[in-house]
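Hello,

Our lab assistant flagged a job as stuck in the queue for most of the afternoon. It eventually completed. Since we weren't sure the result was trustworthy after the delay, we are filing this so someone can double-check. Below is the sequence as submitted and the structure that was eventually returned. Let us know if re-running is recommended.
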Amino acid sequence: MKSQLPGMSPGSVKDGKTTAEKFLRLREVIYQLRSPGGCPWDREQDFASMKPRFLEEVYELIDALEQNDFLGMREELGDLFFHLLFMALLGEEGNHWTLDDVLDEIAEKLIRRHPHVFAQSGTIESSSQVLTQWDEIKKQIEGKNYQSLLDNVPQSLPPLQKACVYGKKGRKVGFDWQSASEVLPKLYEELQEVEEAMAGDDREALAEELGDLFLAMVSLVRHLDFEPEGLVRAANRKFEYRFREMERIAAVQKTSLEQLSLEEKEILWQMAKKRQEQESS
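-- returned structure --
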């Protein structure tokens, strides 16, 4: 099997070392950090302590991706390599697996689930065919027959992303709207129910209706082929830019947002909005 990415092949050489040698060097660095006489901080870490740090690194990579910051991406990918190898080493230390086990398992899985590439088995012409074949291989060959379509959805997924995944699972069995335009009446219905709950004094009922409104909104986003978490992150970035710009303008005017009226704040918001639009054009 020949690599299609020469820069990633074991025989590629940079700075006198192959890619494989560089990978092994990183592994040895991590081994030394964990070894007796290594770094006290690294020796204290376990799976529980590494979990939040790993998530933080993932989000830092997402930030770099969304900003098209290629130098940042390179740095954050390196940080993720560190975390992945570190946790692989934790598994080795606990006799749960070896790094070879981890690498073999993912390579074999990718080959097994892409027979149209590695086994010249059948003709695949579209991504939808790939996904259908992927699911069939999981069921027929790997024996992953779940009692529910929702069984393999990670419980730790962020809520909006999980809602999107649930919707896609429902779509597989025809439990879904056919188009975004069909979702809109449901969205209006849920909004009306929120308004009705707001008129009452039942906080639990209001919370439930707000949750239903979120789910309907995620369904609309999904049908329009957007990713809900990404949209919210983009909206947050837009708000952050404009709010910081409001603070900057207020400081230039020798005042602060706290001292301004709501009408004056709105003027600054519109100024910040105009500047952002000019920078984006």
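-- support follow-up --
The delay was a queue issue, not a problem with the job. The result is valid. The chain has twelve helices and two strands. Residues 1-8 have pLDDT under 50 and may be disordered.
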